[in-house]
Amino acid sequence: MTPAGPRHFASDNNAGMCPEVLAALAEANAHHLPGYGDDPWTRRAEKLVRETFETDCDVFFVFNGTAANCLSLWSLCEPFHRVICHQFSHIQTDECGAPGFFMHGVTLHPLDTPEGKLTPDAVREGSRTPHGFHGSEPRAVSLTQTTELGTVYTPDEVRAIAAVARELKLSVHMDGARFANAVATLGASPADITWRVGVDVLSLGGTKNGAAFGEAVVFFDRARADNFRRRCKQSGQLASKMRFLSAQWVGLLENGVWLRNASAANRVAAYLEGRLAELPGVNVAFPRQANAVFALLPAAAAEAVAARGWRFYNDVGPGGAARLMCSWDSTEADVDAFVGDLAAALDHA
Ligand SMILES: *Cc1c(COP(=O)(O)O)cnc(C)c1O
């Protein structure tokens, strides 16, 4: 085995499983249990999600975020519908057309609004259908929380968008691949930033929060959950050994581990932001509100730290900023090592 390298800032999916997830998997492995979700781990995980959101929602566990998004949107849309989203949303930029593939003709309607966040006015404008029945009918709006640019919608912002959506008869989907980080930032209850402000269905991220794989789909509008298992089955997303998806959620949600993980990532990102502020010539591109820092680096310095082996994306969102993503296992020491290399690169540039 190669020795463990440093923890990079490429993505929170570079982190391993947190100990509680690994322990839950080991425990789930100790017993012979029924498949396809008919098992006590899945019951326990569903119950924990309901308790977390303080409501009687329908909960499903799928393998990844693309499927969570597309299957939940599929539950809202007919093939002639369209989904309003942000131009930098994961469904628009990072799912290889899966929304159209899963939904047989549903289109996305990307909007260009500041800092990765949709606004009520933009949603209203975007839902116009000038060509009448020749155009796809808007049926859903998809918000990402935290956004792909590392910002966080406040509960009031979500409420205002959802109010316009209601008026226009659009359902509200939330891509919560980093939902835990938003909860940690806002210090609000999960219910207060979802169904209580008008979210109908949530893709709840586990992978980036400390699971090995798997996201949950949470239907607050339970009428929309009809046939969801068949949609999963047909698209290859119904886990036969479901308990290994669901047990991870027991590891995350019991004792608040998910929020501890998210808070840790957010805290290290805040530290990184502070350390970068010491460096002349380095600026932050978007407000740092959760676990991502988007840093505008001089090109030569960005190349130099990349050449030293530091990994990060510079093609997420506009402007070529380095996206520095912290995960549950990121540490201040990782930040210090990176900032040290960056400071040296800036000196030589
Ligand atoms: C990571 C991520 C996903 C999930 O992607 P998969 O690779 O399909 O698991 C979804 N939405 C956002 C915003 C993400 O960052």
Task: Give keywords.
349 residues; alpha/beta; Aspartate Aminotransferase, domain 2; Aspartate Aminotransferase, domain 1; 3-stranded antiparallel β-sheet; 10 strands; binds pyridoxal-5'-phosphate
Polypeptide structure, described:
This protein is of the alpha/beta class. The chain folds into 2 domains: 19-256, Type I PLP-dependent aspartate aminotransferase-like (Major domain) (Aspartate Aminotransferase, domain 2), CATH 3.40.640.10; 257-348, Aspartate Aminotransferase, domain 1 (Alpha-Beta Complex). It is 39% helix and 15% strand. The protein has helices at 19-28, 40-53, 65-74, 90-93, 98-103, 120-126, 155-167, 179-186, 228-234, 243-253, 257-277, 299-307, 332-348; strands at 58-62, 81-86, 107-111, 137-144, 171-176, 201-205, 215-219, 283-284, 292-296, 322-325. Strands 1-7-6-5-4-2-3 form a 7-stranded mixed beta sheet, sandwiched between helices. A 3-stranded antiparallel beta sheet has the order 8-9-10, with helices on one face. Helix 7 (155-167) links the parallel strand 4 (137-144) and strand 5. Helix 2 packs across helix 10 (243-253), helix 6 (120-126) packs parallel to helix 7 and helix 8 (179-186) packs across helix 11. The chain is globular, with a radius of gyration of 20 Å. The protein starts with 18 loop residues before the first helix and ends with a helix. The mean pLDDT is 96.
